[in-house]
Amino acid sequence: MIQELRILDKETLFDTEAHYVIPRYQRAYAWEDKEIVQLIDDINDSTGDYYIGSLVVAKVKGKVKGKVETYEVVDGQQRLTTLYLLLHYLVSYGGLEGEVGKTLSFDCRPNSNYTLTHIQGLLLDRNSLADNEDRLEQSIMNGLKVIDQKFTTGDAIDVAAFIERLKSVILYRIEVPEHTDLNRYFEIMNTRGEQLEQHDILKAQLMGYLSNRCEQEFFARVWDACSDMTGYVQMHFAKEEREKIFGSGWNNEPSDDWNDYKVCLAMEQGEDHKVSIMSIIEPSFEVEVSDGKLEGDKTKVRFESIIGFPHFLLHVLRVFLSVEGVSMDKEKELGSLLDDKCLLEDFDRTIEYGQIGATSIKDEKEEFARKFILILLHARFLFDQFIIKREYAGDDQDGRWSLKELCTSGAWSAKKPYYANTRLRYENEWEKTYAPRNKECLMIQSALRVSYTSPKVMHWITELLEWLFNNNETERYKLTDEAERIAAEAVKDNFLDLGNYELGVQTPHVVFNYLDYLLWKEDKERYEDFVFEFRNSVEHWYPQHPSEGTIEVWDRVDTFGNLCIISRSVNSKFSNLSPGSKMMSFERMVQRGSLKLRIMGNIIKEGCSSQYWAEQACRKHEEEMLELLKKRTEELLG
Description:
- The chain has helices at residues 33-45, 77-93, 110-117, 119-124, 138-152, 159-166, 182-192, 198-208, 213-227, 239-246, 262-265, 277-280, 309-323, 343-353, 365-386, 431-451, 459-470, 479-494, 509-522, 568-574, 579-591, 595-605, 610-637, and strands spanning 2-6, 18-22, 50-65, 68-75, 104-106, 169-175, 303-304, 326-327, 355-356, 359-360, 389-391, 400-402, 404-409, 416-421, 537-540, 563-566.
- A hairpin with a 2-residue loop joins strand 9 and strand 10.
- It is of the alpha+beta class.
- The two termini are 55 Å apart.
- The chain has a six-stranded mixed β-sheet.
- Helix 9 (213-227) packs parallel to helix 15, helix 16 (431-451) packs parallel to helix 18 (479-494) and helix 16 packs antiparallel against helix 19 (509-522).
């Protein structure tokens, strides 16, 4: 059973009809400064309903204190104890009225219980229990100290505002089934070293909408395959089911029709992994290896996704809204940010307020679960084939951008996967004609990737997935143009249409990266060594604050022609040097940088002085760069 609990409502989490006991097999309270401060910051930065984690409990049968049910805490005790200390602190501070219920205790830890019992006295006067110092649990005392420092020193938190946010903080209490081996369960959870995440709870909720056990098991297999973001989704299915879903070549697009999966519904997880003893002892026997791992390497993945599974779910939910034509009242629509902390909230809002035609999703939850899991599978297949990854091969530690599709060679039991560049082609097109299109698509996507470094704002992935759903295989050679259109639109809306080209360090990074893409595309042979990297610092070529006694201060340093995008490490080296000094000292670094930077460096190298740069060369360079941007955005967007 899953229950939503608010930390602070009319009463606190610890004033409800529940008593929580930390069992003896759990370690003592052990959170330190980093974890406590992070929890407080997460709450303080939250907006709207904010999911803070899960609490796994087991009801202690026959153990009731008055009307209060007793729960043994299996997982989540560190967070629960910190919340208990935090609420007590807020009462002592005067921010919360009343008292916090004494409904948390430790089994067989007398020092911990003594400290919790006297917590208000300790907060008011530490010396009040000086004679019993040896009875205090120091880890709990340290927790109180960290909380106090967070609220009273440095950038002190507004207590009233914090308490308002606390009213929207939600904890999910998950009750394990009766007769669960709690010691074994805890051992497994402790080995994982993880809290149940929002996507774990979401999986349980959506599976709960299905009444048929076979459907639930199929749902779980698809979800688990999609949740492993390493490699290609086909390789996360058992071989027999893989061929039922993706065809004998393992690369057919999966169906969006539930009726096409009847054979899969009758299958059990991993049933085709059964191998006879005679097969195992054959010299030719090999264990099938997922493409997630490199051969001979148990730790490094070959293909690494640019986003994690929670963010992928947020993209897919938005694709679902588009593909299924879901309508919602404007005030109930999903937020603009792809915030993984709002994963459950976004799904709850969709289910509660979404309409497909005249049907409310909340009235057809079972159908919603079926439709969503198939769109998740389809989206993951398209994501793997058409959205860039990082690929690691051989001794390459940094990886490279990759846009590949899964193919197979051999037949029957000898069939093996291999990876070839994704074919963005129209019907009957020669490879030499369509091959360059893959490189262009990889380059424009990597330009978008390094422009939007936070997964919260990587909306371009949603847009490309929606486009892929709406365009069949014969139209997908246009994917490069669609990705470029997204970049061009961002540049037009956030830069060109402003008419102000003196934004300085506030110039959006996508402007520089899209310009570099256009420069690369104009002369691919000259710039064949160029790759998009995480250059996250906008630099003034002619410095804002020239080193004393070198060159004059220039009042137009913020103009676009004088700007470039570089890595932070390069930025620290450039310092306040003149353009000439930068080229003299760091020419090799400049020639490996962004293409706009290379062009500026070449202008200086050809004999342009810093003064001439400021007076004329910068303006000419800017006009050329802006003309390139304006011309292409006009072609794409009209």
